[in-house]
């Protein structure tokens, strides 16, 4: 489902307390699903700046974006049901179907590294060096995790995963390193990051 790609916030702004609460809900669910702002924005077809503004309570969330966030984050419809609070006096485009909105722990990713793979010295050396091509290759060799599964979990082009595994290119951006670590369930300390939100739940 497409959402408004506009990176700007149009007036009128919602009451600050309501906007802050709504933004906190979006941030909670995003972190629960181990997604960066950039990764979430890509999945809901929105500008990262817009998602960031919504989380910060600086911008009223457009209805199409609320629906897309519910779908991608698996909230059970809580964000769209709260949408009218952001737009007092504005009719919502239609009621969201009722569904309970529990806060479960995020499901394990498809490419989670087994403990015996994560414990290997060559895997840990590759992680410390951010040599994810070697990590992908060893994950397939010792964990039976296909490159296609890695690509889906890490939101990457399968060809890109294959090229990295052959030693062609590197992953250098902080956001992508974080996204890969979360997708493979690599503890933050092994890649030079702070402990990840899902580590506390585990």
From TrEMBL:
CDD domains: HTH_XRE. It comes from Actinorugispora endophytica. InterPro entries: Cro/C1-type_HTH (IPR001387), Lambda_DNA-bd_dom_sf (IPR010982). One of its GO terms (molecular function) is DNA binding. It comes from the Bacteria. This is Helix-turn-helix protein. Residues 25-80, 135-191 form the HTH cro/C1-type domain. Signal peptide: none annotated.
């Amino acid at each position: 489902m497409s959402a408004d790609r506009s990176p700007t916030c149009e007036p009128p702004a919602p009451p600050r307390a309501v906007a802050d609460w709504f933004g906190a809900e979006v941030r909670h669910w995003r972190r629960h699903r181990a997604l960066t702002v950039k990764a979430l924005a890509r999945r809901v077809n929105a500008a990262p700046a817009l998602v960031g503004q919504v989380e910060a309570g600086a911008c009223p969330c457009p209805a199409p974006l609320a629906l897309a966030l519910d779908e991608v984050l698996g909230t059970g419809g809580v964000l769209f049901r709260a949408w009218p609070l952001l737009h007092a006096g504005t009719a919502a485009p239609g009621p969201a179907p009722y569904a309970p909105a529990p806060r479960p722990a995020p499901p394990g990713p498809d490419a989670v590294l087994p403990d015996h793979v994560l414990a290997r010295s060559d895997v840990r050396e590759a992680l410390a060096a951010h040599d994810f091509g070697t990590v992908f290759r060893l994950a397939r060799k010792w964990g039976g995790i296909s490159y296609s599964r890695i690509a889906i979990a890490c939101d990457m082009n399968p060809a890109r995963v294959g090229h990295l595994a052959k030693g062609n290119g590197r992953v250098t951006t902080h956001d992508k390193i974080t996204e890969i670590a979360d997708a493979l369930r690599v503890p933050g300390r092994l890649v030079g990051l702070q402990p990840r939100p899902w580590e506390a739940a585990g």
